[in-house]
Amino acid sequence: MNLSALDDFTIEVPSWAYGNSGTRFKVFTMPGGPRNPYEKISDAAQVNRLTGLAPRVSIHIPWDLVDDWSDLRAHAEKLGVKLGAVNSNVFQDDDYKLGSLCHPEKRVRDKAIAHHKLCLDVMRQTGSTDLKIWLPDGLNYPGQDSLRGRQDRLADSLQQIYAAMDDDQRLLLEYKFFEPYFYSMDIPDWGTSLVHCLALGDRASVVLDTGHHAPGTNIEFIVMQLLRVKKLGAFDFNSRFYADDDLIVGSADPFQLFRILSEIVSLGAHRPESGVNFMLDQCHNIEEKIPGQIRSVLNVEQALAKALQVDQEALAAAQVEGDVLGAHAVLMDAYETDVRGALADRREQRGLPRDPLAAYRHSGYAESIATTRTGGAQLSWGA
Ligand code: RM4
Ligand code: MN
After folding, report:
1. How far away, in angstroms, is 325 Cα from ligand 1 center?
2. Which atom from ligand 1 is nearest to the alpha carbon of 211?
3. Residues forming beta bridges with residue 88, ordered by sequence position
4. pLDDT tens for residues 325-366?
5. Degrees, nearest 5: CA angle 31-32-36
6. Tens digit of each residue's pLDDT (9 = 90 or more) over 255-264
7. What's the 134 CA to ligand 1 centre distance in angstroms?
8. What does DSSP say about strands 184-185 and 138-139: parallel, antiparallel, or unpaired?
9. Per residue in 244-280, is it b (16+ CB within 10 Å) or e — as a string?
């Protein structure tokens, strides 16, 4: 089984997956939860150590603010990982009740723009190239504010952030169809995100979070379309039964994950040159955090390995012949291929454990953090 395309494939993990979080209801605390950004990075590094798949950790600002970025960076690098995308956070400040970059008041928009400039400064120090923006902005009631006016303010605010970027920095713009507001979000869909990215320029592209669509949406179509116009900058993987459920990627609908990765493979976008940053955006609630992340990156690897088994020539031939069932069968054959043994062999050849989850259980790491992380407060999702 040819899996060599996996050699250069990486997944970025989120710092916020390791704290106690995952729901707006009861948050169940886990022993050994991280108390600061350093401990989050240490936990994330376990995922990479055991899977070889996750060499970068996304950070969230202000949740992960530290006094000395070169020190946090050195801590990460010592553990074999790098600091990845910087996520701005404009959803936890009283000033943002009516929005951030789209707010009716210039003072609040300026504050949100300044926050993004701070994130760009953080990137200069962490060596990150990606600024990831998810805006909580939206309206709860028709007439509450001008839909059109908010788009104009958004365009202007984004332009100011873009103008402050260095040549090697990218702006990644995420969309979400509802939540925290329900009548209208200011970036509800990929079309809106794309319109703004096209206006900004080459270094702006769309983030597709798999949990941010209405039920039944054909996400692989969106993936294909954004790749087609070279505007897919990043993924936030997770899975959902209803809305933004934040569950382990590939758990709710492994076939959807395969379909998404099939589009990616058929367009060569799994290769690093494509510039697509594959990330997880998940918050674990009832499951253990580190094993939850290990399972997640393995699920993506497995779906990608299956997608790599699609016989592209046979598929193209069946499509040209109009062989409906034949073409469908080529795809299903790949999906039904059991790649688990080949992936375990490959891990072993690369000096990794055949079963990373079992290796984590035997490593003693969970027991060690449960006993040594005493004093200080465990973090609830971010801070
Ligand atoms: C948002 C969005 C962002 C993530 C935060 C934590 O819903 O998905 O990507 O940074 O949650
Ligand atoms: Mn996201």
Report:
1. 39
2. 8
3. 61
4. 999 999 999 999 999 999 999 999 999 999 999 999 999 999
5. 135
6. 999 999 999 9
7. 6
8. antiparallel
9. bbbbbbbbbbbebbbbbbbbbbbbebbeeeeebbbbb
* pLDDT score of 146 more than 90: yes
The predicted-structure confidence for 209-247, as pLDDT tens digits, reads as follows: 999 999 999 999 999 999 999 999 999 999 999 999 999
Alpha carbons 43 and 64: distance in angstroms, whole number: 14
What confidence tier does 46 reach under pLDDT thresholds 50, 70, 90?
very high
8 Å CB contact between 300 and 250? yes
Our mutation pick for probing the ligand 1 site, out of 60, 175, 206, 281, counting the most ligand atoms within 8 A of Cβ, is: 281
Residue 115 phi, psi (nearest 5): -60, -40
Centre of ligand 2 to C-alpha 350, Å, is 31
Given a contact cutoff of 8 angstroms between Cβ atoms, the answer to whether 44 and 81 are in contact is yes
- Non-local CB neighbours of 287 within 8 Å, separated by 6+ positions: 248
Q: Which residue has the tokens 């008041």?
A: 105
Ligand 1 lining (C-beta closer than 6 Å): 16, 87, 134, 174, 209, 236, 244, 281
Contact 221, 194 (CB under 8 A): no
Residue 267 CA to residue 270 CA, distance in Å, equals: 8
3-state secondary structure of 172: strand
Q: How far is CA 53 from CA 11, 57, 66, 129, 144, in A?
A: 6, 11, 26, 19, 46
Res 383 pLDDT > 80: no
Alpha carbon of residue 193 to chain centroid: 16
What is residue 250's DSSP assignment?
T
Residue nearest to atom 1 of ligand 1 (CA): 134
Quickly tell me which residue has 């979080």 as its tokens.
21
Which ligand 1 atom is the nearest neighbour of the CA of 209?
8
Taking CA atoms only, the protein residue closest to ligand 1 atom 9 is: 134
- Are the C-beta atoms of 166 and 122 separated by less than 8 Å? no
Q: What are phi and psi of 370, to 5 degrees?
A: -65, -30
